[in-house]
Design goal:
With 266 residues, the protein is α+β, with helices and mostly antiparallel strands. The protein contains five helices and five strands. It has a domain of 136 residues: Protein Transport Mog1p, Chain A, CATH 3.40.1000. It has a five-stranded antiparallel β-sheet, covered by helices on one side.
């Protein structure tokens, strides 16, 4: 889903209008975007600035950025709460990058992301498209690298893009070569069935993958009740003396050799 068309940034204009006079550098725009993502889509509430790790009952959360949130030229320190859990958003400004950390005070989980304000922010005044032409991609990075490793709760609208997977009809296997079997032998594409109902012997020799039965050899006859859907089983001669099985003829391997009665030394 395109974030601009899907109302993902609905409410950004109101937020940015309240801080427009305070924004004086490109990193301020990115901090405002993180704040917008946390407060609108993750239901966080900002409880002020600083790095105090104790959440008191007097801390009242707000969807607005607090006063003096960007007074420090090299660092940001914002405190947020979600369901009585305190989070710290810390930002450090270097010569070219902005390093952001999100810390869960209870679990001590921490995440980090390094971004380049000069390349991501085109202006410090204007609408969202003018400020950040790739705002949706920036939000995705914030979500995957900054929020997901720390925050495991639900959000109202986490994803900014939606992929539609093609539906498979009739359970067809995309890795299957040719048409699926419907009983009988496989028929390679491009060959017509035998006319007049003649048996389909030798069809397997035409398939380069060796499918389709015994080729020029007729199939072995099968007997009802055999395992494997009636397929014949290989001959097996048991080791050692055979058990006495009633109603069974002599074993060919046990028949006397020719002229046995005449030659006792054979």
């Amino acid at each position: 889903m395109d974030t601009n068309a899907g109302d993902f940034f609905y409410g950004w204009d109101l937020l940015f209008k309240t801080i427009r006079a305070e924004v004086n550098k490109k990193s301020d725009v990115l901090i405002a975007l993180v704040h917008f993502l946390l407060t609108k889509h993750y239901n966080f509430r900002c409880v002020g600035i600083g790095e105090d790790k104790i959440l008191s009952e007097e801390d009242v959360g707000s969807e607005l950025l607090p006063d003096n949130w960007n007074d420090d030229d090299t660092k940001y320190s914002l405190r947020y709460t979600h369901e009585k859990v305190l989070y710290l958003l810390i930002g450090h400004i270097t010569e070219e990058d902005l390093l952001l950390n999100l810390l869960d005070i209870n679990t001590k989980k921490v995440s980090n992301i390094c971004i380049d304000p000069e390349n991501l922010v085109a202006a410090v005044n204007g609408n969202i498209s003018t400020l950040m032409p790739t705002a949706s991609e920036i939000v995705d990075r914030f979500r995957k690298e900054l929020l997901d490793p720390v925050f495991t709760g639900k959000s109202r609208e986490v994803t900014t893009q939606t992929s539609i997977e093609p539906q498979r009809s009739n359970g067809a296997d995309p890795l299957r070569i040719g048409e699926p079997r419907r009983g009988g032998s496989f028929m390679p594409g491009g060959y017509e069935p035998r006319p007049f109902g003649f048996p389909d012997i030798g069809r397997g020799d035409l398939d380069p993958l060796g499918r389709g039965g015994p080729g020029n050899l007729f199939s072995f006859p099968s007997r009802p009740g055999m395992p494997g859907n009636g397929m014949p089983l290989p001959r097996f001669d048991p080791f050692g003396p055979e058990p006495n099985i009633p109603n069974r003829g002599p074993n060919p391997d046990h028949m006397r050799p020719p002229n046995w009665d005449n030659d006792y030394y054979m």
